[in-house]
Model the fold of this input.
Amino acid sequence: MNNKSSSSGRRQDATAIITSGPIWSAVWYLTWPSAISTFIMTFYNIVNRIFLGHVPAAEASLAASGIGGNALNFQMALLFGLSAGTSALVSRSIGENRLKDAVQAARQSIILSVLAAILTGIPLALCAKYLVMAIGAAGDVVALATSYTAIISWASIPLFVNMIATAILRSQGDVRSPLYSVAAVIVVNVLLDWLLIFGIDGLIQPMGIRGAAIATGVSRVVGMTLTLWFVRRSKLGEALSHWRLDLRWLVRIFNIGWPASAQNLVMTLGSAGYLRILGMLPSGQATAAQAAYTVALALEALAFQPGIAYSMAAPPMVGQNLGAGKPQRAIKSAWVAAGQAAAIMGLIASLFLIIPQYLAKPFSSDVALVPIIVAYLRINSFSEPFLALNMVLRGALQGAGNTFVPFILTSFSLLFVRLPLEWLLAIHLKMGASGAWWSMSITACLGGLLMAAWFKFGNWRETKV
Done:
């Protein structure tokens, strides 16, 4: 048997597991490789923050990476919409045993990813300074955040193509191949981070945050190359040939994807607004709060990365089972995944209550940041199980192609509750950074409850893709 036939056989086994095997086994089958992937990515983010926390102007560099990351998230909003459309259409087509439709959905998604990367990456690179200033960068942070954002923006095509190709693989039930790509990417990124951020005497000039950005761009190319190779070997390998735009499929992808893009844009705006309000704190507190937020968010990822892994497993579980005419199995699979994620995230979050100071200290040589980070971890530890419900059930709804209501719920909790509450607590009531942390924790609980209510009582099962 050749490699491609063997690969196709494994995908067929994956479909059988997703639509016919024991649900707990199916959930675990799809989740564990994604869990390892997200853990590796979290490890990289932590190492990256540690590196930046030990360069000259560490506080400004950490704040710049956080603000630059939020600027780049405007681009990610569109990418997540494309990924949602890809996941829903490919997984549903595979569940219905319509391989040609799955190939065409994958092909059109890849074409769109290239176009979207060009249309967003170039403007983002050219307008980086104005965007980071709008988010809240000031003083020395502006130049650092601008450089970081602009450099990474020029590597938009490999980012977009890699994420869509990953969605194509996962929609087939192939969750191991993306793990191999992620592992290679992180190895390259960490090595280049070390070399470029700190330099080598006589060989490489220390580049600080610019070095981190260059390392990210190079590693994106590595990831795209590997992931496309895995797609070529899969049963949807024909998606990489005969590239012609098909308006009918573009409309289908758009109809599913635009609410998901809008939802992620709202999340990006909410995060940018959150940083902006932190920037309204007295000058001595603002940069410290923004830097602490960047570090604490990387630490919090220890808890919410399992939720991301389960949310990656949810779309193929729901999409393929709906396509196979098994809606009750789709529903039960989603609840099992959400329950497992909530339990694991709650357990990890208990460390934020018990030993937050030991988690925070390695991240910065600035002792003033540690108590701010500790407060963030303690306050947000209570909301992690609710965050799990939100993430996993939103992924399940994405697999069903139901993306509009989650967009509305996310908009309400972030724009109309979190930001006003943050301003009220942090600025008006003068609670400072702790007030901002409480606004995040409270609205994370609200978002989880709203998403669970819609999944339980809504008519999302009737969504047509």
In short: The radius of gyration is 21 Å. The CA atoms of residues 24 and 295 lie 34 Å apart. DSSP finds 17 helices and no strands in the chain. Confidence is low (pLDDT under 50) at residues 1-12.
